[in-house]
């Protein structure tokens, strides 16, 4: 299954029409402040990201879904699963992640999409454990992780950027949905 419907969202594979709206999200310094070193990404970098995300679907059988609003068809960001290669000390692991445009924050979309992704991880992909990684100061993402039933597991510095990260985890056999 590569499409998931929630009450307000469609999680689906990427299309060419997603490049410009995703690049706009990636160009917002407030959105990107918690990603890597906080640098924004341009259109070309976003195209490379989407290509890499689609390759992960082909290689792993999961990946990052494009997330659109059901009512308008507007792309609001992504949510999905990936292998956190940048953090070798947590491997082997599968990470749940999300990134939404700022105008879509605070409306429960991240939690709604992330719950659907956890169901996908458990029921469709048979994963038994999922982690999430956030900058320690990113309380909004940590709140979503808490709503998912994830527990803090360890703190670690980003190997390239040196920023403090907190790794959360959930055993999907305990996931309540």
Commentary on this structure:
With 177 residues, the chain is of the alpha+beta class. The chain is 31% helix and 27% strand. It is built from 5 helices and 8 strands. It has a 5-stranded antiparallel beta sheet, with helices on both faces. A 3-stranded antiparallel beta sheet has the order 6-8-7. β1 and β2 form a beta hairpin. α1 crosses α3. The two termini are 18 Å apart. The mean pLDDT is 94.
Which key phrases capture this entry?
alpha+beta, 3-stranded antiparallel β-sheet, 177 residues, 8 strands
Q: What topology emerges from the helices and strands here?
A:
Blueprint: E1 4-5, E2 9-12, H1 19-26, H2 29-32, H3 43-60, E3 64-69, E4 75-82, E5 95-100, H4 109-124, E6 129-135, H5 139-147, E7 151-157, E8 164-171
Antiparallel strand pairs: 1-2, 2-3, 3-4, 4-5, 6-8, 7-8
Helix pairs in contact: 1-3
